[in-house]
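Worked example (supplementary).
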Amino acid sequence: MSHLADEPVEDAPATRIPVATDRLVCSGVSVAFAGVRALDQVNFSVNRGEVVGLIGPNGAGKTTLLNVLTGFTGVVTGSVHLDGRDITRLAPHRRARLGLERTFQHGRLFSGLTVRENVELGAIAVRVSKRKARSTTARLLAALDLEKVADVPVAQLSHGDQQHVSVARAVAAAPRYLMFDEPAAGLPEGSLTQLGLVIEWAIKESGAGIVLIDHNVDFVLNLSDRVVVLDYGKVLAEGSSDEIRQNVNVVSAYLGEAGVENLAASQAP
Amino acid sequence: MRSKFRLVAELVGPLAAVAIVTVYGSTMSIAQQGNVTNILVTATIVVALYVFTGNSGVMSFGQVSFVAVGAFAAGILTSPTLSRQANMPSLFKFLGTTQISNFDSLLLGAGLGALFALLVGVVLLRLSGLSAGIATFAVLEITYDVLSYWDKIGPGVMPVVLVPVTTTLVMGALGLGVAIAVAFAYQRTRSCRLLRATREDAVAAQGIGISIFQHRLIAFTISGAIAGFAGALFVHELGSISTGQVYIDLTFATLAMLVVGGTGSLWGAVLGGIALGVLETFLSNAENGVAIGSLHVTLPNGLSVVIVGVIMVVVLIFAPRGITGSHEFLERFFSHGPAKTGTGTESESTAKMPDEEPPEVPLSPRPTS
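After joint prediction of all chains, the assembly is encoded as:
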């Protein structure tokens, strides 16, 4: 089922998406930076066990939306609910303890600490016992083949390996919802397949509801159950990966008229 | 096993340094022993400063306020009540009459230091970066003014006098040893590990569930306790205390020691405190004239402070992580990898969360199949 938000989204009532358990929901969210609307009445939700891709051109508001969900950006209007609980005013660290984990663009690992310490902190920070954190870390490092670099400071790792560590750090917290912010940014084409495998592993391992943002649209579409397209701070389209691939509005947002003509040409018999 | 040795070294190294200084100092004249005691007490204040600044990466100019509170409380309550009635007639009644033992005054200093730090911290530690630094400086100023002018809690501009002198060389060494042990034990806690993560990357730390405020407050309070304790040691070393002795000069001196030693490690705090302490003592002696061999040298007055300032600048330029590189004692010996990267006192430039998007990259929105 494809939902095309051609009509102005402002008309939709803010409570359009029912607040439910096992669901992370934001309703009617608007955010402004220096008077510019970064997000405009956005409704968005992810269920536990579901992978939602979030794509859109530069400045569309993808990272802003993720920051709203994780608490790093405040909203002008709208609300965020986690499993039925209103978390709109909750600080980021509180949300993390409720099971809302994220990775960051460019990793943002604790660069002076070792791989093992980074992953362990992911668990300890959400009040997992030290013993359990240690065993979880050992398991995750084994699964990601990071054991041989476990005691190396992360700053010495390749960018690709650092991304894997940041995924492991988030998974170590056993999150209920897990967000990936541009995990493929700055990675060479060759290491995308491996990153994809790591993210698929993280999805299985955590069983969390996933939000995946990336500039590499194919990368997102291949991993997602459902895709939401943002443009100019609004939801432009929503649907399955295939539906989004064929969506004229989406292609136009990315590539302009030329792209639409190409799409039409490729669809012609 | 290796990490066990490393942990032991981390504690034993600084303690051994203190022991060596103490044993060497005990061979000196009584007057010189007083100087060595002063070095040890000052190093205790540096350890207090380290517990907060080193672990959080946030500079504080206010820690000497907690030293002041500890020193004045311990000094007043252990000085003879008769002297208090004569010199501080306006004191609150309980301050005028209560008499405690010197040992109790050390505990009182620690308790009051912790309490004051907790109250200050609850207000200030919500600030970040530069504003936090400036605000801690304001606390120093306020403490100085209140102690200087409120004659119900102290002698005002006059010094507290006739305080029993019990901080001998050995007591000074024991005091510093206790401070080192507390700092070491705190470093093993979960809270300190989480705080150190916020030092590396404040945004990521929040993202994974760490409350920056909470863990900074814990460190600030423990730092305040050690500072208040050091203040009590200090007053029992000097036998008197006035507000000018626990103000900007001491703040600068202890900060310089921490920076020169290495902000990010306990070993750096202890070594910096001792090394600069020895140098300062030598230089201020030289201002009064010293004999080096057959040569009699007299340095111009004030030169010692200038030299310490220059050393601090030189270290900041050429070894920003201090002479220990902000490593713990023998840390590099035990770790197999190359030295850690990143600086001990990470500025909080990373604490902002810009809504950044990477530069435009080519997109392939069309299906590949």
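Two points are worth noting when inspecting this output. The interface with chain A takes residues 190, 193-194, 196-197, 200-201, 203-212, 336-338, 340-342, 353, 355-358, 360-361, 363-368 of chain B (CB under 8 Å). Confidence is low (pLDDT under 50) at residues 337-369 of chain B.
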